[in-house]
Specification:
This protein is of the alpha+beta class and about 140 residues long. The chain has three helices and eight strands; from the N terminus they run E-E-H-H-E-E-E-E-E-E-H. Helix 1 packs across helix 2.
Amino acid sequence: MPPKTYNTITTTGRKMSKQLYTLEYPVRSSAIILYEFLSTPAGLQEWFAEKVDERDGLFSFTWNGSTDQAELLESEEDRYVRFRWLHAPPGEYFEFRIEKSEVSNQTILVIKDFAEKKEIPDQKRLWDFQVNDLFHRIGS
């Protein structure tokens, strides 16, 4: 099944086509511990951004002195959390989902995000780097 494609218009009027892509990472951690690192400002600050603040469901993420904001769209404790960057179109989001493999009973971190097709390999490398830092922090 091909990835979902969403069209957005840039400020220059040029159409950009972003696709939803999914990454999966086996992790040696309980869902309870992992969820804390994916859903709370303190947990996200450990691996995702240098500084994270939250107020009324609005998260501020800071990297190298630059801040970007995302709203918490929905979450379910120990299962998933979904955010949307304020600058992104309504249909785009990034999501952290915690699943269990039916075969091995192993915990799987599933990340869903959007990017232009040509940028997906670079975005995957960035997520690999970030997730490696997360696993280091949780001792996985």
